[in-house]
Description:
Elements: E1 5-7, H1 25-34, E2 38-41, E3 45-46, H2 50-59, E4 67-70, E5 73-75, E6 78-79, E7 84-86, H3 92-98, H4 104-115, H5 123-135, E8 142-144, E9 152-155, E10 162-165, E11 201-202, E12 206-210, E13 217-220, E14 224-228, E15 231-233, H6 241-252, E16 256-262, H7 267-273, H8 282-290, E17 295-298, E18 305-307, E19 312-318, E20 325-327, E21 330-331, E22 337-338, E23 341-343, E24 345-353, E25 359-361, H9 370-389, E26 393-397, E27 407-412, H10 419-428, E28 438-443, H11 451-460, H12 464-467, E29 468-474, E30 487-494, H13 516-528
Parallel strand pairs: 2-4, 3-5, 7-25, 8-17, 27-28, 28-30
Antiparallel strand pairs: 1-2, 4-7, 5-6, 9-10, 9-24, 11-14, 12-13, 12-16, 14-15, 15-24, 16-19, 17-18, 19-24, 20-23, 21-22, 26-27, 29-30
Amino acid sequence: ADTTITAQSAAPVHRCPRAMAxxxxxxxxxxxxxxxELIRVSEPIATELxxxxxxxxxxxxxxxxxxxxIEQPTVNGEVSSIPVAINTMGxxxxxxxxxxxxxxxxxxxxxxxLVQAKPPTGLRDAMALLGQALGLRHARPKKVxxxxxxxxxxxxxxxxxxTEPWPSAPDVDDPSTLTPNPSxxxxxxxMQCWPLDGGRFLTLPCVVTRDPDTGDRNLGMYRMQVYxxxxxxxxxxxxxxxxxxxxxxxxxxxxxxxxxFLGGDPVYPFCATAPMPDGLDEFLLAGYLRxxxxxxxxxxxxxxxVPANADIVIExxxxxxxxxxxxxxxxxxxxxYTLPEPYPVFHITAITHRKNATYPATIVGIPPMxxxxxxxxxxxxxxxxxxxxxxEITDIALPAEGVFHNLVFVSIKKTYPMQAxxxxxxxxxxxxxxFTKYIVVVDDFxxxxxxxEVLFHMCADTDPQRDSILTKGPADVxxxxxxEIAIGGKLGIDATRKLPGEGHHRNWPPLIQxxxxxxxxxxxxxxxxx
Length: 530
């Protein structure tokens, strides 16, 4: 495989922090290439397993390796005209670039100052608050009539599918626009990721649904297994917002409109996976992060809107009167295959795309993978929100080995007995933190991003009987280890120093540390003797 890779060398390009929004995935890839973060693969590589093996080796490299652009992906031996981009957010640097910033921490700091804003007490405070308000002016999405995502339109809602060039789409079926071989799912370079997968899966789809009662829009990400040229599975788990929307349609018996898009600004898939509160539009977060309103365009065949600058849009519906269909197996982020389970069928009524579209994809499996960096960025960005509820929290980390929410490390500034247990219960009650199996709470001086340091304190500073709590609650439906689906046990460990009142009746010894004067003297000695 190494012979097929050609690294594009270029001097790093530093963008001004949060200075511009990407208008296509190709534009983002161009920025990655200029920053030396992209490898072009010019030789044909199969979407069946081969891209996965190549990408997995890259993701396992230190710091996440490089992004890959597969210029000639093959589908059943035939070269696709649409390139595949993968591992584009699989490092701290590329994740920051996707957010249009120098670092994820810089974005988190800005968001933290926004959510913690207080009424101004003087002119300087007022000007600072005004600056924050101006930064929000682009958060609200706006509707437009046309967009690059409609440069090519394939409809499947008539006996003969038609292709319409953008922007002058005809109002009626014109024989000159009809094509005997319209683009379908089978023409897209959708990957079979792992040997035992049940088929090909879209792995980075942004799924748009709407609450039929409130009209609230949701942007989520749910894998989609391709069943045939015009239908897929829709793997939204029972605790997800889209699944709640779906239950209302199943109660009324009405068809549920669904729109799926890929590409566009890389901030979209990040926002689709962000732990946003139910009812809050993810496109608001996207507009804020990109400092430019997300332009939304009406779908061709359903009453939903998608970003006008998306690369590929797949429109359709779910029919609540038809039975569910088995979906899977799928090699999942747990490191194991998720076995077949019944899910709704998504029927496709249209596919629209750019003339020069890019197909973004990812793979999941045994960590570390690309999703680790996306999850870490989410935690860092939303840490200020956690601190609003729990001001004692210093930091949170989701180690790669915990495959997102299985294992959470939390550091706190402890001031009273049993505070660590209060944090455990609080986090288990917040959004997707309800899926967390293990929470380890440490003192504020412990670096939760250093797993070795956390494990040292977990082993050294705990009595398992006194400092552990077992409880139960909702579990990830992908977790194969629970006795029942979506129900499981949880373990919390208080690895903080014990205070009076916490059952520890001995003196707590000091941690071994060298004094600063000696360290400074040896620093000088080593510097002078190199």
